[in-house]
Each structure stands twice: as C-alpha cells, then as structure tokens.
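It is worth pausing here to work through a concrete case rather than discussing structure prediction in the abstract. The textbook approach is simple: state the sequence, then state the predicted structure, then interpret. We follow exactly that order.
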Amino acid sequence: MDDQRRHAAGMEIRRAVLGDEHVDRAIARTTPFTADFQDLITRCAWGDIWTRPGLDRRTRSCLTLAMLASLGHYEEYAMHVRAALRNGVTVDEIKEVLLQVAIYAGVPVANRGFTIAQDVLAGEGVVEPAEEAP
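Step two, the predicted structure:
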C-alpha cells in the first residue's frame, strides 16, 4: 500500500476509534511544524498498525490502555478510554485491564489510570461519579 492509501486508511480508522470531533480538533491545530507528525501517526499508528487483521479493535484498545498507564502516559489516557468504549470494550474490561496493570506495572500507575477512567466513564454516563473527598 502506498503512503496516500495508508494515510486514507489510517484516517478512516482514526476517526472511527477516536471520533470525528477529536480528529477534527487535531487537524485544526496542525501547523507547518506539526504537519509531518500528524501524517506520521495517521499513516503508521492508524494506517499500518490499527488496520492489521491480527487483533480486533477491542483488543488493541485494551492493550493501548494497559501500555499508556504502564508507561505513565496519562496525557492521552482519557481519549483512549473513550476510544475503548467506542470499540466495544466494557466498563468491567477496562477495570480488569487496570487491575492487570496494578500487578505488572505498579499500583500507583493503576491508581492514576483508575482515576482518569472513572472521570471519563462518569462523564459518559456509564458509571456513577466518584464522591468528592471532604
């Protein structure tokens, strides 16, 4: 597949997983300085990896949640919790991913992942909001 086709396929998957609103915001913020990076992630992450037939989107979302939390990359965690829901990952499966992270990557990183996921899931109306501490 040539670069143009990979970009088109990647953009289709990126929109399906992250939602048009998110992708439109990212594209609107693209500058001459960041344009090559946007092209890279669209072609490579979305066009090369997320289009592969070996894993379904649900599994890829679970892996992404586990890796982002394990590496402490929380800046995109909320976005990928929403993406996981869009890909059919259940609330219980997100919880199980984070429990697995707690054992293999550490309780503090799982704790932060749970906090972010709780906020997102409450915002999406699929769990009750956490109570505020006194």
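Step three, interpretation. Helices lie at 3-18, 20-28, 35-49, 57-70, 77-86, 91-104, 107-123. The chain has a mean pLDDT of 96.
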